[in-house]
Design a protein that fits this description.
- The radius of gyration is 24 Å and the shape is globular.
- It is built from 16 helices and 26 strands.
- Helix 1 runs parallel beside helix 2 and helix 1 packs across helix 13.
- The protein is of the alpha/beta class.
Length: about 525
């Protein structure tokens, strides 16, 4: 087998990432040498690769589905939004500046060459490359600068599978309209449809699918059922809905639950850090965006942020800052991760990210943070440094501009002889993303959290492996693809490309100017 295709979506969060991961896992299980590729991603959920760069979290998961280590080759362009108008531009894993929409337009040719070179390299090395689009190809106002949808598919002549989320409603119109709004040459590459998150009897949907094929000349390759068990490694902030649960909580091992409120910051980053907690039986995790949601929680987690100073101001405006201070004064457990850890300190000096200079933190840690270039990107290993976690191995990765300029609190971790993080009673903080995926460490720490929260009936399970949960989710995705997607048609698209002479809907639907005037 030799080939490549693009999985595009009618909307953001339509299911592109999971379909790509599922196809990759399915092909890898068949012995195919397959790699993922997303030319351009916009997400603050990122990971550090072994080659020292930064890519979107979804591409790291897709790499795992292929049996590969994450690499900057799989996501050469990453945009990390710091505001509604400006994003950090990461090229081949390294931050190269901050851009707005018009600045990005000026970079388009250089970035197009980067993307084309990386895709060509992957296609030469692997049997199959499964590409993921970004947003929707129907965003025709962005077609001139598009690198990830039809702007990728056209020069590489990639057949395109279009995914629609039926759970949102109107999926047949989304699929039809996406094809119809494209220019004729782009339409020629749209080769088939995939329906995602279907509930019920697929035969009730069949007449609509048949009519869609009649109208477009394109088949539906599969209808993927809604799977409640799929939740880990959410692609971006669309998965962090305020008051929504994280994962599918399993019953407690003991007699009590442990409840966790994770603060849903406006510019949240690496929201997946809390998913390791949601893997634990008896741990109920919910996103919170206002103070009352913190009151009954046993643990509050303040996660990372791409706009630390701005999100710190939001904490104050929302009343959450005062709720955190009151909680700390009452001995309630709090965990801060990366940007959240920085906010819990006394002072932040930031001439880099916000340009605001010196800003007061919440003052819960005796901690001084100074922002500087270049961004810290590294994998870290070590062990716990407090009595309850002493010597227990930890691993994770760091992505931050803020450095510890001074700390008067004991360190939480020892990373190869270097102190990391802070502890003050039932307050913990660290720059280390992925820390809670260290299973033994997480178990020991949760016992301390339960003790501090007075949950004597909570018992930590002894056999939860976050890596195994993630691997099982990938296998579930592959099972869904194998059971519900037409694999023969998929193989033909990979081998032969887009079918020749697909109908062009614009000529059927929209008369020309001459016809309108006649």
């Amino acid at each position: 087998m030799k080939g490549a295709l693009l999985v595009a979506g009618t909307t953001s969060d339509a299911g592109k990432s999971v379909v790509v991961a599922g196809i990759c896992r399915m092909l890898a299980r068949r012995g195919v040498r397959v790699a993922p590729f997303k030319a351009q991603n916009m997400s603050n959920n990122s990971v550090v690769t072994l080659d020292g760069g930064e890519i979107g979290r979804a591409q790291a998961l897709q790499a795992q589905a292929c049996g590969l280590a994450p690499s900057v080759r799989f996501n050469p362009v990453l945009l990390k939004p710091g505001s509604d108008r400006r994003s950090q531009l990461v090229v081949r894993g390294k931050a190269v500046g901050t851009v707005g929409a018009r600045d990005y337009f000026r970079h388009r040719q250089e970035l197009r060459e980067v993307v084309a070179a990386e895709l060509a390299s992957l296609r030469a090395e692997f049997d199959v490359v499964i590409c993921e689009g970004a947003g929707s190809p129907a965003e025709i106002n962005l077609r001139a600068t598009d690198l990830a949808n039809m702007g990728l598919a056209q020069p590489a002549r990639l057949p395109v599978l279009l995914v629609g989320d039926i759970d949102r409603g109107g999926v047949l119109a989304h699929l039809f309209g996406t094809v119809a709004i494209l220019e004729p040459e782009d339409q020629q590459l749209i080769s088939g449809f995939v329906i995602n998150k279907f509930r019920g009897d697929v035969e009730l949907l069949r007449p609509g699918l048949d009519r869609l094929t009649e109208l477009t000349g394109r088949p539906t390759l599969g209808v993927l059922p809604y799977a409640e068990d799929l939740w880990i490694d959410a692609e971006d902030s669309l998965g962090t809905v305020a008051d929504a649960p994280v994962g599918r909580p399993l019953p407690p091992v003991g007699t009590e639950w442990l409840t966790v409120a994770a603060i849903r910051l406006p510019r949240i980053s690496n929201s997946t850090d809390i998913e390791a907690l949601a893997c634990e039986p008896g741990v109920s995790v919910r996103w919170a965006s206002e103070p009352s949601r913190l009151a009954g929680a046993d643990l509050v987690v303040l996660p990372g942020s791409k706009a630390t100073v701005s999100d710190l101001e939001w904490l104050r405006r929302s009343g959450i800052a005062e709720a955190l201070r009151a909680r700390a004064a009452a001995g309630g457990p709090i965990l801060g991760i990366c940007g959240g850890y920085q906010m819990l300190g006394k002072r932040i000096v930031d001439p880099v990210e916000s340009g605001r200079g010196e800003v007061d933190g919440l003052g819960l840690f005796d901690l001084q943070i100074a922002f500087a270039d270049p961004k810290v990107l590294r994998h870290s290993t070590g062990h716990g440094a407090t009595a309850d976690t002493a010597g227990i191995p930890v691993h994770g990765y760091e992505i931050h501009h803020g450095r510890v300029a001074g700390s008067g609190d004991p360190a939480w971790l020892d990373l190869e002889g270097n102190p990391e993080g802070s502890v003050r009673g039932p307050l913990w903080g660290t720059h280390l993303h992925g820390l809670l995926e260290s299973d033994d460490f997480r178990r020991a720490w949760l016992r301390s959290v339960a003790t501090a929260a007075g949950r004597t009936g909570f018992v930590v399970a002894e056999d939860v492996s976050v890596a195994a949960v993630r691997s099982a989710q990938l296998d579930l995705l592959a099972d869904l693809i194998e059971q519900h997607l037409d694999l023969d048609q998929l193989d033909r698209l990979l081998a032969d490309g887009a079918p020749a002479h697909l109908p062009t809907l614009a000529t059927q639907l929209f008369p020309t100017t001459a016809t309108l005037g006649s």
